[in-house]
Amino acid sequence: MTDSPPRAQPLAGLRVLDLSRVLAGPWASQILGDLGADVVKVERPGSGDDTRAWGPPYLQGADGQATRESAYFLCANRNKRSIAIDMASPEGQQQLQQLAAQADIVLENFKTGGLAQYGLDYASLNALNPRLIYCSITGFGQNGPYAARPGYDFLIQAMGGLMSITGVPDGEDGAGPQKVGVALTDILTGLYATIGILAALQERRHSGLGQHIDTALLDVQVAALANQASNYLVGGVVPRRMGNAHPSIVPYQSFPTADSDMILAIGNDGQFARFCQVAGHPQWAQDARFATNPQRVAHRSVLIPLLRQTTVMRTTAEWVSALEQADVPCGPVNRLDEVFADPQVQARGIQVDLPHPLGTVATVASPVRLSATPVQYRRPPPLLGQHTQEVLHDWLASQPADPSQSTQLAQATS
């Protein structure tokens, strides 16, 4: 019996022309690159993607000195090639149109209608390449009264309701709306954009035609409210900020311990009964006020202080050890240094170190685990314009591939 030949990555052979910058668009194109697509990132000569300047911190070079490659840029741009083209110039527009004619996917996050002046909008490029899948990412979408407005993650977290349900409850110290500690709306928009692109690719197999994907940060943020949005639509009650507590499950929040904090994520009555046994208060599970989740929710104000008085009697490690043995979901509140030192994180290989032209760059692995066609980390995040001549040759056969020219151009434009 002979071994089967290795299978190609899922998106191998697909070409992505990435006109996006900052986070939502680059996050989507990085996923496509991780899955095997040839992603070409188009950047402004001289400055490049805005996030290249969003530091410190910056990558440390082999000599230990900081480079001009920001950590922010590095997080969302591996498995791509960078070309530096001025789309405001007639020559640049012609080159980009030629590249789009050879592409399977164009990804952009300019203001609505902003690329029409360059002949790079969907209508113009669809005329050149009817098979093209064109994904637009904007703050508010291609239509509606806000369509022309710029949209940023922080703004959309506020307008889309996320900040109204995030933060310390009213009446407590530090009360007020809070944003999430990472640009979550951008990340989720990148994921939804990727899903839309994959769906359009599947449909193209039947029709032979591409289509326009309209992805808006506001749409994504409202959709991602999930049960909180449903609670309002079904129950008619506006959700409120509850800190780390859950509106429908108790106890499901953080609790102080003797040395730090821990999370209890008790999702059913059996788990609660087992917690009570470990905590030395089995009677709580028999108390009519606490025996079922609806009753625990109704009597939250009584139960939570009792739990807090108990959890402070042991350290986080002691609680986690005892509760894990009882099959009660719990865990520490880790700092990022503790996250990357966690044995489970290390066992899963979540940190991936890639060789970079300026040294070594540490990245976070893709969470997509495919058994037969796994993600490959083929390229580190590129230098600005590093692959201009190479890409023009590969896609257009218009210029000879000369690595030395690519290096010189990258140095000239970085």
From TrEMBL:
Q: Which InterPro entries match?
A: CoA-transferase_III_domain, CoA-Trfase_fam_III, CoA-Trfase_III_dom3_sf, CoA-Trfase_III_dom_1_sf
For this UniProt record, the keywords arranged alphabetically read as follows:
Transferase
Q: Which Pfam families match?
A: CoA_transf_3
What stretches pass through the bilayer? none
Report a single Gene Ontology molecular function.
CoA-transferase activity
Its protein name is CoA transferase
Give the organism the record lists: Comamonas denitrificans
